[in-house]
Fold Enoyl-CoA delta isomerase 1, mitochondrial.
Amino acid sequence: MFPVSPNYGSGCPCFPTPCAQAVLGSTSTPVPCPALPACVPPGVLPLSRRPPAWGRAARQPPGLPLALARAFSNNKILVELDESSGVATMKFKSPPVNSLSLDFLTEFCISLEKLENNRACRGVILTSAIPKIFSSGLDITEMCGKSTEHYAEFWRAVQEMWLRVYGCNMVMIAAVNGSSPAGGCLIALSCDYRIMVDNPKFSIGLNETQLGIVAPFWFKDTFVNVVGQRIAERSLQLGALHPAPEALKLGVVDELVPEEKLQERAAAVMAQWLALPDHARQITKSMMRKTVLDRLISHREEDIQHFISFTSKESIQKSLRMYMEMLRKKSG
Ligand SMILES: CC/C=C\CCC/C=C/C(=O)SCCNC(=O)CCNC(=O)[C@H](O)C(C)(C)COP(=O)(O)OP(=O)(O)OC[C@H]1O[C@@H](n2cnc3c(N)ncnc32)[C@H](O)[C@@H]1OP(=O)(O)O
């Protein structure tokens, strides 16, 4: 049984039976809860309800072999947790280009949830095991010639991935070691800090307009929160992919480092962030992100319907097919 929030009491609508929102450490799917204002201090992240890990010992079931608590490897993402530092690394390894397929997204969310539920973990570094590519963004084949049901399932998974990363209580650092268009860029933008390899051949940005599609409002909101209105407006309309040095200049990433220093630097930045008490940092993060998160949470079904009707249009299908054809010709 998980403990309840310190704010929980007779003033909560759900008193005396604590709802999911009032229960710290609950892993249930995030849903807006009527008890939220009373049970949780204003500004606390609505998604991840794991309690602050700062100063707490790891919660590991007795008898579980230590190795199991430290690492789990799946098909498309390698997860390693260093319990002494409290830092996990999630390494994308889905050849050829780490595209965000339904399977990838599902595995991503499960892996992150596992880490959230492990109190030994306080920070996560996202990076790639595929040379030169961080992530090629949403898997375009998931958006081409599929059923309405498939589009709905896929888009829910994309939403879930963003809600989990953007709303994550843990410190999230993107160690961007390759190109990162569209959905790949969104993952990086959703982290707390972005370090990119100093290589002008690697680019990052929300290039949706180049595919004839439109970045959803929550992609746009996330981008605006990182770079500001003017830069986001220009970059989004042009579907710009910014080479690493330009990405730094515009604030899309926070710093550039030589490739061989990337993991070391990510660990050093993580240590700086983890030096703060978790609860203060988490509440501050929530305060900064809550409005944007709530906007999608309260319009989630509408957003799925919009994606389905937009993607199902013959003109959009044609654009996506032509884009895939262009990629194939380039690679072949
Ligand atoms: C209402 C809202 C509606 C819609 C919103 C949707 C929002 C969409 C967000 C997205 O993320 S859309 C995806 C955008 N991504 C891209 O534009 C990237 C495209 N890819 C590239 O630019 C390059 O592939 C690269 C990532 C820079 C890597 O280049 P490289 O030369 O190393 O590889 P190559 O191009 O040869 O690709 C290898 C192989 O992979 C296939 N591929 C690449 N990207 C994707 C992808 N995103 N989805 C599916 N498949 C992808 C490519 O076709 C090649 O396949 P092949 O070997 O069979 O030819």
